[in-house]
Amino acid sequence: MTHVDIQQAMPRVVAPGVMECGPYFERHARGGYFIVGRRQIHWYEEVVPQGDSYLLTRDEALGAALNEKQGRE
């Protein structure tokens, strides 16, 4: 990993009460996760589709994290 990769993957607040870690890059994909309270909501996106995907995209995971946060209020 380069210094830029490490800086991009550092945890950061993306909405009140929602922190994002990642993205982390692999050869054909990238992924990361959102933290709401003690819950982690993971996402994974294939850059080169390798087949059927049953995982959340980043946008879907962010939506789930925001809904989780809203449910805690």
Question: Can you walk through the features of this model?
Answer:
This protein is an alpha+beta fold. It has one domain (3-72). The chain contains two helices and four strands; from the N terminus they run H-E-E-E-E-H. The protein has helices spanning 3-9, 58-72, and strands at 12-15, 18-25, 29-36, 39-46. A four-stranded antiparallel beta sheet has the order 1-2-3-4. Strand 3 (29-36) and strand 4 form a beta hairpin. The radius of gyration is 13 Å and the shape is flat. The N and C termini lie far apart (38 Å). The relative contact order is 0.19. The mean pLDDT is 88.
Order of helices and strands: HEEEEH
The unreliable regions are: none
Largest sheet: 4 strands, antiparallel
- Domain module tally: 1
Can you tell me the overall shape? flat
Distance between the termini: 38 Å
| Helix/strand/pairing category | alpha+beta
In what order do the strands lie side by side in the largest sheet? 1-2-3-4
Topology:
Blueprint: H1 3-9, E1 12-15, E2 18-25, E3 29-36, E4 39-46, H2 58-72
Antiparallel strand pairs: 1-2, 2-3, 3-4
Name the features:
single chain; four-stranded antiparallel β-sheet; about 70 residues
Structure, briefly:
The chain is an alpha+beta fold. It has one domain (3-72). The chain has helices at 3-9, 58-72, and strands at 12-15, 18-25, 29-36, 39-46.
